[in-house]
Amino acid sequence: MSAHGHNPSATPSTKRRLTAALALAAAYLMAEVIGGLWSGSLALLADAGHMLTDVGGLGLALLALRFSERPATSDRTYGYYRGEILAALANAVVLVLISLYVLYEAYQRFQAPPEVASGTVLIVASVGLVVNVAGILLLRSGAQDSLNVKGAYFEVLSDLLSSIAVIAAAGVMWLTGWYYADPIVSAGIGLFILPRTWRLIGEAVGILLEGTPSDVNMTALRSGLGRVPGVRDVHDLHVWTLTSGYNAMSAHLLMEDESLLRSIIDGARAVAGEHNIRHVTVQVEPEGCERNEFHL
User: Quick one: 247 and 130 in the same domain?
Assistant: First the structure.
């Protein structure tokens, strides 16, 4: 028997916040590209590349949330929940590629750093700082509940730090004329982004491979199910994540007495709820039922 949780799609407030953050990021992206080309600053163009992934990531996040609300069908019995995870993975991969390209361009500029219009860079980066602060305030609450929104939030957060670094580089170049500050900051942006993005990729791949959620202790879960009155044994226990914040479980429970069937099911649901599992499927078996265990 199975117990189904509510649809894990985002709230209307989260969607509105994503839409607002997307509009801000898109407007600033255009300003940053123009400013980077005008000033000749790689740091500003590197931040524009990062902002491009912000725009793409926010757009994918919004699209994935809309897909996740589509109802389940006979072909996709879980609906489109995994669309969110695929969007987060695509977003992270693009961000890694752009970071690697920025590192390559920074290396090239170390050979002969060109002159940069530091005043223009300073103005554009300062505007970017304000835009990114607004984006963080818009996305912070939703990042706690959704891996997809969390990926977009991390992008905006890292772009905020990038804007601060670009402002610092522009100040150095403006005051001293030391143009090595531009490729140094560009390389720093790339190196800052990579490890955080790699962790996001790991989380998304873990969900796609149906790994055990990090917030579920399988030993404690098995032990809790085994203590449900009337349960003699627990086997074929599986736990996985459908989408952010929506864990699922299936298990076979060997019962001592068929009269306890209802209480065993209710007890198993209660134990699963204690472990943040919202979709529960249990098969209750009488003693003597053939055991066919494939999972610890």
Answer: no
Locus of tokens 């407030």: 13
Separation of alpha carbons 47 and 189, rounded Å: 8
- Determine the length of the chain: 296
* pLDDT at position 271: 92
Q: With beta carbons less than 8 A apart as the criterion, state whether 184 and 190 touch.
A: no
Q: Of 61 and 255, which is predicted with more confidence? A: 255
Say how many domains are in the chain. 2
CB contact at 8 A, 273 and 214: no
Other beta carbons less than 10 A from residue 106's beta carbon: 23
70: which residues sit within 8 A by CB, 6+ positions away? 79, 80
Is the pLDDT reported for residue 276 higher than 80?
yes
CATH of the domain at 231: 3.30.70.1350
- Cα atoms in the Cβ-side hemisphere of radius 13 Å centred on 189: 40
Q: List beta partners, residue 239.
A: 249
For residues 122 and 91, the model is more confident at 122
Task: Please give the backbone phi and psi of residue 277, each rounded to the nearest 5 degrees, phi first.
Answer: -105, 120
pLDDT at 145 over 70: no
Q: Given this model, what pLDDT does residue 64 score?
A: 67
Max Cα distance, the chain (Å): 84
CA–chain centroid gap for 172, Å, is 35
Give the Cα separation of 75 and 78 in Å (integer): 9
